[in-house]
Amino acid sequence: MTAVFLGVRHHSPACARLVERTVEELRPAHVLIEGPAEMNGRLDELLLGHELPVAVFSHYRDGERAATSWAPLCDYSPEWVALRAGRAAGAEVRFIDLPAWHPAFAERTNRYADAEVRYAEATERLCRHFSVDSSDALWDRLFEVEPDNGLAERLDAYFALVRGDAEADAGDRARETYMAAWVRTAVAAAGDRPVLVVTGGFHQPALRALTASGGEADDGWGRDADGWPEVPAPPVGALAGSFLVPYSFRQLDAFAGYQSGMPSPGYYQEVWEAGPEAAAGGLLRTVVERLRARGFPVSTADLIAARSLAQGLTALRGHSRPARIDVLDGLAGALITDDLDHPLPWTGRGVLPGGAHPAVVEMVAACSGDRTGRLAPGTPAPPLVHDVAAQLAGQALDGGPGTSYRLELTDVAELERSRVLHRLRVSGVPGHVRTSGPRHGIDPVFTERWESQSAPGREAALMEAGAYGATLAQAAAAALAERTRDATAGADGLARALFDAVLCGMDGYSEQLLGELASRVGGLKNVGALGEILSTALGLWRHDRVFGVAHGPLLAAVIGGTTTRLLWLLEGTRGGRGVDFPRLRAVAAARDAVLHAPRVLSVPPETVCAIAWRISGDPEAPIDLRGAAFGLHRALTRDQGTSGDPAEAVRPVAKAGADALGDWLAGLFALARDEVTGTVGDGHGHGHGHGGAESLIDVLDRLVCALPDDAFLSGLPALRQAFAFFPPRERERIAGRLLERRGVRGSSRSLLRTAADPLLIARARDLEESVSRLLARYDLGATP
Q1: Predicted confidence band at 722 (pLDDT cuts at 50, 70, 90)?
Q2: Collapsing DSSP states into helix, strand and coil, what is residue 565?
Q3: CA distances for 407 relative to 401, 504, 685, angstroms
């Protein structure tokens, strides 16, 4: 006998029925199924009595690459039916596809992703021929609603046309070569009994051709002790494995982003269990019930109209039984009277867009269903599952939903409880949510609050996190290291990863993470985000009272590398207008690093001063950065008597306009506010600067008063933005100095409190003066 090939569409009830009938009729010696071959020794786990859907979750990790993928199975998956029916018929059942870690699955997170989607030309032609909107409507038209007679022949013709002359990519060719090796081995061992091969329909024509010659051709794959093709082993040092996880209909639905097999799993579960007619009636009732529960008015007449429209569309489209699209279009026609901003989602594929009509949302939700799978008791789980259970119980963190925890981080025991919860969070395991606590490295908050919440996907997420390590500490460290190594991770993401590492506990795993971070900062280009990293690391290095990382050597390496990179980028910055606040905060962070951690820097303070002085005088540098660089130089040289005089430096800047003056001052005040406000007054009415020099405020007052009205009005927002760096008490001192200069007695607070927005007042005054000039021009006099 030779092999009998059944090409199927994943998660298709029609294909699942065909597989079941074929197994009963053939009674094959072997049933070979597209699935991860590394699971062949553990197929009994799949038959323990799970509540489907479940998935085979596979993971791989080495020093350079990490990958995960899923092979989901539901009641009507042809692969599941082949496994169950094959075992019941006494056949030897095998998965025959490559392991998920293999390079053939590079960039593919779903083993059963529709191959025909990647070669869509033929399906597009068929959609045009049958006048349907999508490949899903085409599939229903050809297979799901038609009688089962002749189904195998129709599938063969369809997949032959879809495959056509298209050349498979390298990954598909490798997989098909490997699967063909299994088929040839099974045929040779089966004698005169048939071999049934159940794979995705796209692969069927290639497998048929590869095995047509029969025999055991040299296919390049080794054989194990039983003569079967060897399952490729991962490289030495890599961590790889597969295990079962619960899955949900939501995860299976195309409207949630799933790109494999049939959409609307809840609807097709009904098709599988009761047939298309019953599924259509059930969908009509469910949608109406959901809409009424949301307060959407749906009358009995609307339900009758929807049913009538669905029946009419079924007949008009030539369907022998109602298809999913017939029911959905009937509901839309009866219930939606508004114009829609988007096409109806079942006319294509993809995530349901935001702002969709309530009726559309409920139709999609009803089709999707809310079933979540459950693993049978005794199903093997990764070691992480047991470690987490033990830690939560040992730390008294295993309370049910609604339980809250208040943790004092200055208490050693409470800090360890916090670390357990943070490790779960960074590992992607839901169920505990932090509602308050420190937000960054120098946040003076020493208490956390957490709440335990219901999380339906927690069990699956916990098992998937097992790919990162056998213990919670290992899993959290690996997850953080992956975030750090991610080529797309920006500096802001790295700063968050740094603080997350601290929250999770600075042990050997976190030291590895800090080493990764220290090596990454040298290649980052975002000045503002680098400043966030430096601020976080420096704050922890200087002030940490809780997490035990103060003056740590790896934090010092992060501080040193980030400061050097920041100075290099700042000196090369060119152009741009306005104030870049993240950049100013980065310059301030560099100042703090030089002042408070000079011994961990590779750049001496004298070099930093020289860089700051060069930037401050560079006409091509952004004006706010020039002011910040002047402030940086002044802050670093205040005890040396060599700092520049801001009152002198501001005069040439003012010549560029009030906007430029405001931007320069913003940079200066962001870095050296204390230095310049110290010249405002000493509390006894004296307003002289250091060494008798005129104060900056006096100079600014004279410069601003000399501005033409239109220039003042134009530059007022920038000037106000600059002085926003001063806290209220310092602004009062400045206001007092301005009153003193004018010989006016009174409270300085009155100068700061206006009846309306100062910008609005200035614009109103400008408007009044414009009106007065216009009246005078036409000799109309002025208003009293």
Answers
A1: confident
A2: helix
A3: 18, 14, 50
